[in-house]
Amino acid sequence: ARVVVLLSGTGSLCAALLDATDDPAYPADVVAVGADRPAAGLEHARHRGIPTFVCALRDHPDRGAWDRALAAEIAACDPDLVVSAGFMKIVGPAVLVAVGDRMVNTHPALLPAFPGAHAVRDALAAGAVVTGASVITVDAGVDTGPVLAQREVPVLPDDDESRLHERIKAVERELLVETVARLVATGTRGHSSR
Ligand code: GRF
């Protein structure tokens, strides 16, 4: 199956998916990696000769034009699945039409708890003793799509945001690799299965 990954940062989740695809038995190949900025994470793809693209909001007159440009970049890759792996933008209607229910997002909390861009900080601030990682289908909202997979991560008493986030990302990597394989193998998308 043809997978396109979108990222904004270091791309540790994208790297984990790329490592998984090194196994010929893994039922997916990453055909391109895109970003909304010249993100460091793109290097993981370049290093493997995988095409990359940057679709930056500031290169477009407005958000609608950016959304349409991103949709065109994604569609040009002819993906079976699009994976948002630390992609820090809310995609617009053009992308949603282009991907349908074939776009998933990984989030460092047990959705619906702690949606949004500061999930780890919010869980700590709320005094959560258990948090986790979620993989959801992307819809028009912010982290509101159907939950495809979740896994718990303990919060330790002396955790700070970065220590907890690293512990979550270790689980996110596993959960994402497993869930992408399940989705492309069974074609099950948009159905909630914990
Ligand atoms: C991940 O925890 C992702 O869920 C969140 O930001 C982090 C991205 O990490 N949105 P990386 O860029 O893959 O290292």
Automatic annotation (TrEMBL):
It holds the Pfam family Formyl_trans_N. Gene3D superfamilies: Formyl transferase, N-terminal domain. Residues 2-180 form the Formyl transferase N-terminal domain. CDD domains: FMT_core_GART. (6R)-10-formyltetrahydrofolate binds at residues 63, 88-91, 105. Its EC number is 2.1.2.2. The active site is at residue 107. It catalyses: N(1)-(5-phospho-beta-D-ribosyl)glycinamide + (6R)-10-formyltetrahydrofolate = N(2)-formyl-N(1)-(5-phospho-beta-D-ribosyl)glycinamide + (6S)-5,6,7,8-tetrahydrofolate + H(+). InterPro entries: Formyl_transf_N, Formyl_transf_N_sf, GART. Keywords: Purine biosynthesis, Signal, Transferase. GO terms for molecular function: phosphoribosylglycinamide formyltransferase activity. The record marks 143 as: Raises pKa of active site His. Residues 1-15 form the signal peptide. Catalyzes the transfer of a formyl group from 10-formyltetrahydrofolate to 5-phospho-ribosyl-glycinamide (GAR), producing 5-phospho-ribosyl-N-formylglycinamide (FGAR) and tetrahydrofolate. PANTHER family: PHOSPHORIBOSYLGLYCINAMIDE FORMYLTRANSFERASE. Belongs to the GART family. This is Phosphoribosylglycinamide formyltransferase. The gene is purN.
